[in-house]
Every structure is written in C-alpha cells, then in structure tokens.
Amino acid sequence: MDRTLLGLVLHPTRDATDIVAIIVDWAARHGKGLAVRCEDRHRVPASVEAIPEDELVERVSALISIGGDGTMLGALRSTVGNPKPVLGVHLGRLGFLVEVEPPELPEALDRLTSKDFTVEAHSCLVCDVCGDDVVAFNDIALVRQPGRGFAVATLAVDGQRYGYYRCDAVVVSTPTGSTAYSYAAGGPLVSPATQAVVITPSAPMAGISRAVVLSPEEKIRLELTPDSGPVAVEVDGLVFREASTEGAVDISVRRDAGLVVRLDPRRYQERNQLKLSLMDLPLLPDQLRELLPDGLREQLNRRKLPPPR
User: Active site annotated at which positions (predicted)?
Assistant: First the structure.
C-alpha cells in the first residue's frame, strides 16, 4: 500500500481541530500517513506522526497548510531548501494564497495525492540582514518605531546609489506580496506571473516618494543613515529585529523557491479579484454581510464544517 506522507502545518494559535479531524479521517480511509513537527504533537491525534521540524519537509511528499496567508508563508519558507507542493486550507480571514475551503477538503486531498493539480511557482527574497540570512515570500520591511523618528535609508541597485528614503517604512515585496504591506502603502498590484521586485515607501516625508519596480536580477541594498531613528525589520509580517539603528539589508531574488498547489486557477483568481475589491470598501465584515441576498446570508450564517466521512 502506498504510504504517502503528508505534512500538516498548523496556524500557531487558532484551533484547527475540526479541519485536522477531516484530514485524519480521510488519511485513514486512503492509507496515507500524516506528520506534524514535534512542537504540534499535542494538537493532533495519536495517529499523526511527530517529526523534528528540520526533518519534516525532507520526509513528506507535500505540505498542507491550515490557516491563513501567514501560515502559508511559513510553510513556504520551510521548503526553500527543498521545495515541496503546499496546499492551503483556509482558516484565516482574508487569504490571497490559500485556495481550499474546509468543505472542499476531501476532494482536494484526493486530487493532491493523485497529482491532479497544477503548481504555481513563487520567487522569494533572499535577505542578508546585517549578516543574518532570512527569506521572505511576501516582503521585507524597515519600519520606524513610533515616537522615535523616521526610517531613513539609502537605496543602491547593483552597487549604484539610487537615492534615499525618509518615511514610516520601506517595503520590498515580491509580486505575491504586492497585495500585502506594499499595497497598503500605495504600491502597485503586480501579477504573480510577473518577475519583479517592488520597493514602496510608506508615508514618505522626503527622498524617493514613489514605488520603484526592479528586475529580479538586480541586487538591492538598503542602508540606514546616521540620522535614522531605530527601525524594526519585518519579514513576511514577523518581527526579525526590533530596534536597529545602523546596518544594511542586502536583497536578491531566488526564483521558484516555493510551490503552491492550485486546483482551479481560474476560480482562485476570481476569488482574489473579489477580495481585492472588498478591501477598498469602507465597510466592516458585518456590514458587507448585510448587502448579500437573504438566502445567501442565511446560508453563510448556518455554514458549518462538514462532519468527517
């Protein structure tokens, strides 16, 4: 019997019990193995194997990310050295990477293990932060600390000084990350099919005030100036360094560093188009729900996870 081993990546805080139960039941019926990193052993049934985090990606054939975009990004970062397909199951609020809703899980798992899917390759940013190496699939940002001055940094491209930023934050993003922090700062939306890097200043006071789009072959260097306030360095929205007052970040692009499972690319793009349009509406989620037809609103109010089968 084929003992395909699938790795589960769980949202760090949200309860994923119901979704895990669906996957465990499906795996038992299909003779597939499941694994999680040892740190999540207590969050899954005993039938799920616990594997050290540094061995998990090596041993599984694919990862199932249960959460939102943040969980998906973490799963992708873990596969940079050994890219494996990552299937995203929605447990978040507004995900652009995650495709599968919980009721769709059994069919999605059938297609995952029968290799009936396409792969969406994603580039990542390879960043040297003052000598520490990190990767980012969405963005890396230099963010000022409130009340302690502006983030002031020079920009060099392929070793040539380009200008400087004096702003609340400087956001360097991939096309995938163009819908995240960069978008909130006024940056352009970039098609995932495009190979590019976008640098967007947030609330610029002086210096470069527009988004800059560069080729993935160009090397980027952001260096804090002596008059910069302390800045935090965020990688995919996670704080990597809290109060840097000097130093530089060198950024390059690694192509095809992450593999995202796509079951219905057209439907996925249509959903994302709708999500982007909703982001620009000045309405709270409950107000948006009131705009739906009565029947659909009642259906959403009643919607529950399907029982394991």
Answer: 69
* 35-51 pLDDT, tens digit each: 999 999 999 999 999 99
Let me know if 158 is a catalytic residue: no
Q: What is the DSSP string of 113-131?
A: HTT-SEEEEEEEEEEEETT
pTM of the model: 0.85
- Cite the annotated binding site for NAD(+) by residue number: 69-70, 138-139, 166, 168, 203
Ordered by start, the domain boundaries in the chain are 5-117+263-302, 125-255
Given the candidates 3.20.20.10, 2.60.200.30, 3.40.50.2300, 2.102.10.10, the CATH classification of the domain at 125-255 is 2.60.200.30
Poorest-pLDDT segment among 148-162, 194-208, 252-266, 284-298: 284-298
Phi, then psi, of 275 in degrees rounded to 5: -60, -40
Mean pLDDT computed over every residue of the chain: 89
Give tens-digit pLDDT for 136-184: 999 999 999 999 999 999 999 999 999 999 999 999 999 999 989 999 9
Domain 5-117+263-302, CATH class in plain words:
alpha beta
Catalytic residue among 69, 133, 264, 294: 69
Q: Measured in whole angstroms, how far is the alpha carbon of residue 210 from the centre of its chain?
A: 24
